[in-house]
C-alpha cells in the first residue's frame, strides 16, 4: 500500500482547523462575533472532522483483510476513547471543583455542581469526558457499522446507500427536535457517511486531479449557505459532498513527503490534548477576569500556538506515563467486548 502524503498534509491542516474552532468559540458565545472576525471563515473549518472520518474509511478500504483490520481498529479506538474519557473526567473535576470553591461554593456543593454537569445523554453522544471526544465515539460506532456491512458481503455501493439513509434519518431527527443531543455535532450518522465516502473512493479507485479545486468551490458554497436560513439541513449535504470530492483528489495525487506531511504525525495528539489548556484558561479567567487577554486577535493567536505547542511537547510524556499503562489494563476486556459485538 503506497503511503498517501496528501492525506497527511490535509490531516495536519484539519487538526489546526479543529483548534481554531475551539479557540475562536468565545467570539460567538460572548456575543463578540462579527462577519469580519468570525463568520466569513468559521464554517470553512468544519471540513476537519468529516475529513478525519473519510481518511479512516479510505485506509480501511486498502487493507487486504478488511474485517480483521476493522476488528483490531475497533479495539484501538474504543480503548483510546475510554482512556481519554477517564482522563478528562478527572482533569475536569480537578479544574471545576477548585474553581467553584474559589467563586464561593463549599466543597460538597462544588462536587455536586460538577456531578450535575454529567448526564446519560453525554454518555450516549460520547461527550461524557469532554465535548471533543464525541469524535472517537462516533468513529467507533461508524466503524462498527461498516464492519457489519462488510462482513455481510455488502458491496461498496450498497454500503454508501445504507450510510446515506442513516445520515438522512439522523438529520431528520435533529431537524424535528433541535435538542436531540444524542446526535451532537452530527453524531455517528455524520461519521458513517463521511467514513463510507472515503471507503467508496478507495474501493472504486475514484481519482480526480481537479478534486481539490472543486472541493474548495463546494466548501465556499457551504460557507455561503452557512449564512442563510437553509444552512442547517442543506448545508450539511454540501459539506459531505465536498469531503467526498476531496478524497478523489488525494487518491489521484498522493504526493511526496514534505515538512507539512511530516507534521501530520502530531494530528491526533493535537486533537485529543489541546482542550486542556483552553479549559484551564476559561476557568481561570472566570475566577480572575484580570488575566483575560483583552485583544481578541492576540487571544486567538496566542491560544492557538500555545495549545498546539503544549500538546506536541507534553503528549509523549502523557503517552508513556498514562496512556500506555492504562491501555494495557483496559485492552483485554475491551477487546473481548469488541469480539462480542463483531
Automatic annotation (TrEMBL):
One of its GO terms (molecular function) is O-acetyltransferase activity. One of its GO terms (biological process) is enterobacterial common antigen biosynthetic process. Keywords: Acyltransferase, Cell membrane, Membrane, Transferase, Transmembrane, Transmembrane helix. It is found in: Cell membrane. It is a multi-pass membrane protein. The chain crosses the membrane at residues 12-27, 39-61, 73-97, 132-150, 157-176, 182-201, 206-224, 230-251, 263-284, 296-318. Its main location: membrane. Residues 4-315 form the Acyltransferase domain. GO terms for cellular component: plasma membrane. PANTHER family: O-ACETYLTRANSFERASE WECH (PTHR40074:SF2). This is Acyltransferase family protein. It comes from Fundicoccus ignavus.
Amino acid at each position: 500500500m503506497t503511503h498517501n502524503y496528501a492525506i497527511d498534509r490535509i490531516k495536519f491542516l484539519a487538526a489546526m482547523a479543529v483548534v481554531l474552532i475551539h479557540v475562536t468559540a468565545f467570539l460567538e458565545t460572548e456575543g463578540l462575533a462579527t462577519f469580519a472576525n468570525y463568520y466569513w471563515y468559521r464554517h470553512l473549518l468544519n471540513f476537519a472532522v468529516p475529513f478525519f472520518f473519510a481518511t479512516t474509511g479510505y485506509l480501511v478500504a486498502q487493507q487486504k483483510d478488511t474485517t480483521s483490520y476493522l476488528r483490531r481498529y475497533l479495539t484501538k479506538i474504543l480503548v483510546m476513547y475510554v482512556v481519554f474519557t477517564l482522563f478528562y473526567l478527572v482533569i475536569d473535576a480537578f479544574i471545576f471543583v477548585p474553581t467553584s470553591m474559589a467563586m464561593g461554593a463549599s466543597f460538597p456543593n462544588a462536587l455536586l455542581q460538577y456531578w450535575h454537569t454529567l448526564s446519560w445523554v453525554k454518555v450516549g453522544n460520547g461527550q461524557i469526558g469532554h465535548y471533543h471526544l464525541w469524535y472517537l465515539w462516533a468513529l467507533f460506532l461508524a466503524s462498527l457499522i461498516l464492519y457489519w456491512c462488510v462482513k455481510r458481503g455488502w458491496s461498496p455501493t450498497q454500503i454508501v446507500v445504507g450510510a446515506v439513509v442513516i445520515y438522512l434519518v439522523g438529520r431528520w431527527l435533529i431537524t424535528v427536535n433541535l435538542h436531540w443531543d444524542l446526535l451532537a455535532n452530527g453524531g455517528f450518522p455524520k461519521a458513517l457517511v463521511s467514513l463510507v465516502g472515503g471507503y467508496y473512493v478507495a474501493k472504486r479507485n475514484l481519482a480526480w486531479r481537479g478534486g481539490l479545486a472543486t472541493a474548495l468551490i463546494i466548501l465556499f458554497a457551504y460557507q455561503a449557505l452557512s449564512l442563510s436560513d437553509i444552512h442547517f439541513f442543506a448545508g450539511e449535504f454540501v459539506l459531505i459532498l465536498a469531503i467526498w470530492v476531496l478524497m478523489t483528489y488525494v487518491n489521484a495525487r498522493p504526493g511526496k513527503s514534505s515538512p507539512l506531511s511530516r507534521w501530520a504525525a502530531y494530528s491526533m495528539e493535537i486533537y485529543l490534548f489541546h482542550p486542556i489548556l483552553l479549559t484551564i484558561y476559561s476557568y481561570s479567567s472566570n475566577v480572575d477576569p484580570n488575566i483575560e487577554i483583552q485583544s481578541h486577535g492576540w487571544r486567538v493567536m496566542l491560544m492557538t500556538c500555545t495549545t498546539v505547542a503544549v500538546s506536541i511537547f507534553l503528549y509523549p510524556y502523557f503517552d508513556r506515563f498514562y496512556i500506555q499503562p492504562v491501555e494495557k489494563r483496559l485492552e483485554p476486556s475491551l477487546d473481548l467486548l469488541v469480539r462480542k459485538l463483531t
